[in-house]
Specification:
D-Maltodextrin-Binding Protein, domain 2, 2 domains, five-stranded mixed β-sheet, 19 strands
Length: 449
């Protein structure tokens, strides 16, 4: 069994700037071990002896000679390279046995990491950040090592439930969560939109002001907000190898028709614009977008910048529905290694980079919203308007699991049928149901392909 390395306290090695305003927990406080000297001094402790005997664990080497000269490649997003490089330096101080390891931090974003890893696993990074929707493909390709068993309980208890689900394939945790900030909510100009809680009122305010409301309804990411809002389901089950074993979908239903009708209704407004990029938005007074565009939206709305959870809507059946959606996460993965000592380095680094202290420092440096529960409760994170709106929305959302690649183009096709007028407010309920049945049947066809 892989064994977590015995380390000195993080509090003595983390930089002062990183710890400013943070709780100074240590590997031991997060469920890890105390330093090697303390363990040796307590070798006679009966409980420790019993545990060691029962689990038959042997401590890994803390001799730097064991690790000197080993090469570890790390991939992170471009805007996280400088931050991660500094954290790797702190990691080498906290784990002095790794002082002679050669770490290389390269700019490969979470959107590209999986594709690059799948192209050539051997040439890929040893530790890499990726978006959670890629985890099944990575597991299937043999590009992910399961989380170190000795860290598994710590990872589960430290991070929010959605992040843990996103890190799990079958019953196995394959990644270390680092963010819970990949979701969408409403940005709006508060001088125009007076009530952000109701989509009809948002549309009316935008129309009256001659402004636009951006919502990307032909995206497999944003489109489910209508269907999930009316209570529909669209998820896939996977086995431990990442293969799709079942599709759970009920779009072809009365509640699915209600959702589709709301999409059609929105698309007919003169204020509607299909899109979700603040940089490309013009004359906007409202946009459904994520935290990654917060600075662009602030620039666009200025002093009238405001954020809120997604609005509700009154369906064609007269009932009120709250828009829901996907929640998403950034994860740290470790590539399987033939060299057990190198694998230990990678596991320890991933655990360190996903810790409470580093997640909070990462937020302060580049504004990535933490998945760590304690970090989420910090004053700095709670005062962020975009993250606060997202946090409220995530309570209503469905953690994005794994979806077949073909699903995304299928969802685009359904949205395009609305935007181009193939499906309109004149389309009968029977024909809308047929369109949804075709969509649903296609979703089911992706299982066990």
């Amino acid at each position: 069994m892989k064994k977590k390395v015995l380390t000195v306290l993080l509090a003595t090695t983390m930089t002062a700037g990183m710890l400013a305003g943070c709780g100074k927990s240590t590997p031991a406080e997060n469920g890890g071990s105390d330093n090697a000297q303390n363990t040796e001094n307590n070798a006679d402790d009966k409980d420790s002896a019993s545990d060691d005997k029962t689990e038959e664990k042997s401590e890994v080497s803390t001799d730097p000679a064991t690790y000197n000269g080993k090469e570890v490649k790390v991939w992170v997003a471009d805007n996280a390279v400088d931050f991660t490089t500094k954290q790797v330096d702190s990691f080498k101080t906290a784990y002095p046995q790794y002082a002679g390891v050669n770490f290389t931090v390269e700019p490969v974003g979470e959107g590209d990491a999986a594709s690059n890893m799948l192209t050539d696993v051997q040439a890929g990074a040893d530790v890499f950040t990726f978006a959670q929707d890629q985890i099944a493909r990575l597991v299937t390709a043999g590009a992910l090592e399961a989380v170190n068993p000795d860290y598994e309980a710590d990872v589960k208890s430290a991070n929010d439930e959605g992040a843990i689900k996103a890190s799990t394939v079958g019953s196995t945790i394959y990644a270390y969560p680092i963010t819970s900030d990949n979701g969408y909510f409403l940005y709006y100009d508060k001088s125009v939109v007076k009530d952000p809680s109701d989509i009809d009122k948002i549309v009316a305010d935008c129309e009256a002001a001659g402004k636009n409301f951006y919502y990307e309804i032909n995206s497999g990411w944003y489109q489910p907000s209508f269907f999930f809002g009316t209570g529909c389901t669209l998820t896939y089950d996977t086995d431990d190898q990442g293969n799709f074993t079942a599709c759970n979908v009920d779009y072809a239903s009365e509640k699915g028709v209600v959702a589709l009708k709301e999409m059609i209704k929105l698309s007919k407004s003169k204020a509607f614009q299909n899109g979700s990029s603040a940089d490309k938005a013009t004359d906007a007074a409202a946009i459904v977008d994520g935290t990654w565009d917060a600075e662009a939206v602030k620039k666009m709305f200025g002093d009238n910048y405001a954020c809120a959870k997604l609005p509700s809507f009154t369906g064609a059946d007269g009932k009120t529905y709250q828009l829901s959606g996907f929640s998403g996460y950034k994860l740290l993965g470790v590539k399987p290694q033939e060299d057990a000592d190198k694998l230990q380095i990678c596991d320890d680094l991933a655990f360190y980079l996903s810790s409470e202290e580093v997640q909070l420092a990462r937020y302060e440096a580049i504004k990535w919203g933490p998945s760590n529960l304690k970090a989420q409760e910090s004053d700095a994170v709670k005062s962020n308007e975009a993250l606060s709106a997202l946090s409220e929305q995530l309570l209503l959302d469905i953690p994005q699991g794994q979806y077949p690649g073909d699903y995304w183009s299928l969802a685009t096709g359904l949205g395009d049928d609305v935007i181009t007028g193939k499906l309109t407010d004149k389309t009968s309920d029977e024909d809308l149901l047929k369109a949804l049945q075709k969509f649903q049947d296609t979703c089911n066809s992706y299982v066990n392909k």
